[in-house]
Amino acid sequence: MALIFDMELWSLLVLVIVTLCVILVVRGWLEIPQNIPPFPVRPLPIVGHIPHLTDPRRKLMEWRKTTGDLFSVYLGSTLVVVISSYDLLRETLVKQAEFFSERHHRGILPVLNVPEGVVGTSGEVWKENRSLTLNLLRSFGMGKHEMAENIIEEVSAYLGELSKLSGAPVYPKDLTSRSVSNVICRFLIGKRYEYDDPEYAKLLKCFEDGADLAKSSGLLHWFPNLKYLPGDPFSHKLLIKRFEEMTTFSEKLINDVIKRENTDCNEDNFIASYLEEMEKRQASGKPTHLRRNHLDRAIADLLTAGTESTTTTLLWFYLYMVHYPNIQEKIDDEIDRETGRSRLPCVADRTKMNFLTATIMEVQRISNVLPLALLHRVSEQVTVRGYTIPKDTMVIPHTDAVHFDEKIWGDPHNFRPERFLNDKGEVIQPEHFLAFSLGRRMCVGEAIARMELFLFLAMTLQRFKITPVDPDQLPPLTDTMGLTYPPTAFEVKFVERH
Ligand code: HEM
């Protein structure tokens, strides 16, 4: 009797589960909006395309081949449209910029998804904060604020540390990240940190964890309720902790600047300029979106965005140099010709060191450290090539597809800096180079990043030869997924030239 009852219970349970699955599948099918760009494969109920995307970089390239330049995927229940060609990226992010320039405003990690600062905001808050940030970056990049001199000083400290290694093998990530981040600190507060300063170490720990957290917490973006699971398998708590630490660090930087200003120090940095402009606009009585909370977040945005992508690009550059010693030699010859070994390179040398500049661009093209840029959001329903993209759809600007498009580059998988030089050996700036993205959301730090990359590399290669630890076993040119796509950890030697 008990057995029959058990069997009936089991049958009932199976029936309920099957019915639920059918309802979910049918509902999923019915809820898919009409006339959206095609799917590469049918989405699964609840999870959508997530199970296919364990390696999104490779998978999206594969799907572009099978499905075309415009396709849809579901991440959980969120519709995402992938834009995978240069022409389409221009048609959308540039020509229809008013509809394609927002960020996502829902769901992810309620605490982190604060629409503050620059990277995560939309509409008027974003416009005003981005515009002021861009203006300040420009004015500090120009003569009077001596951004270039600051970078040169910082790189000199960096080279001093490399020299202490006496050519021993090193994975240069931590040291490079410390130095790059200091460039942003100088811009934000007008001072740098010693590399072993404990307060600075805390900030760098936030960056370090960022990459691991990006991986372990990924699913929370699409399923925020996973944060309630016992044991915190998706690192929600650690994410919140790191977020709070970043905010505390930003607050401290602001308070330090205010304190120094109160002691009659004439502060000349991003924080002081933002506060001054904020007070001016608030006093004018006109509506303004410059506020302390946006400043807090903008500081964290600049520190994160400014450190991670530049550091990752430098790491890729070092790795390519050990793989292509002939290219490193050509750069050495150029340095010998243009600056020699006794005078430090300066910004003005950039227009003369075309081969180094072209090599930096080729490293950026082929490593493409943000291959999917950052997610955008569509603010209104739009039509693209006859397809309907509903309001609030997420958009992936798939710049990797452009950087590896054979029709554009011919041999995109070859490392060939000469593709950025014309017949006269001058640098060309192809519109298809999208390392900094395009449209209204493109990187605000492009100019400073280019200046930094040039000065770091010209000065490093002037003083050191980068060599492999074992010439018969070069570290692989493979990437790993984090906040950006850095190379798999590797060691090289920085051998001082005498
Ligand atoms: C090699 C270095 C860098 C690369 C490759 C890079 C690339 C990018 C890319 C691809 C985006 C996304 C654009 C989009 O959403 O379509 C971006 C955004 C951004 N970057 Fe950079 N970046 C670099 C350095 C910097 C630096 C040095 C700073 C700060 C000084 C910075 C600040 C930002 C900010 C604030 C945004 C958000 C812009 C917005 O949402 O309006 N980046 N960057």
Automatic annotation (TrEMBL):
Required co-factor(s) are:
heme
Q: Which GO terms describe its cellular component?
A: cytoplasm
> Per UniProt, what is one GO molecular function of this protein?
heme binding
What parts of the sequence cross the membrane?
A: 12-30
Keyword check for Disulfide bond, yes or no. no
Query: Which UniProt key words apply to this protein?
Result: Heme, Iron, Membrane, Metal-binding, Monooxygenase, Oxidoreductase, Transmembrane, Transmembrane helix
For this entry, list what GO says about its biological process: organic acid metabolic process; xenobiotic metabolic process
Q: Where does heme bind?
A: 443
Query: Quick check: keyword NAD in the entry?
Result: no
Mind telling me which InterPro entries this protein's record contains?
Cyt_P450, Cyt_P450_CS, Cyt_P450_E_grp-I, Cyt_P450_sf, Cytochrome_P450_fam2
Question: What is a single Pfam family found in this protein's UniProt entry?
Answer: p450
Stated family: Belongs to the cytochrome P450 family.
Protein name as it appears in the record = Cytochrome P450 2U1
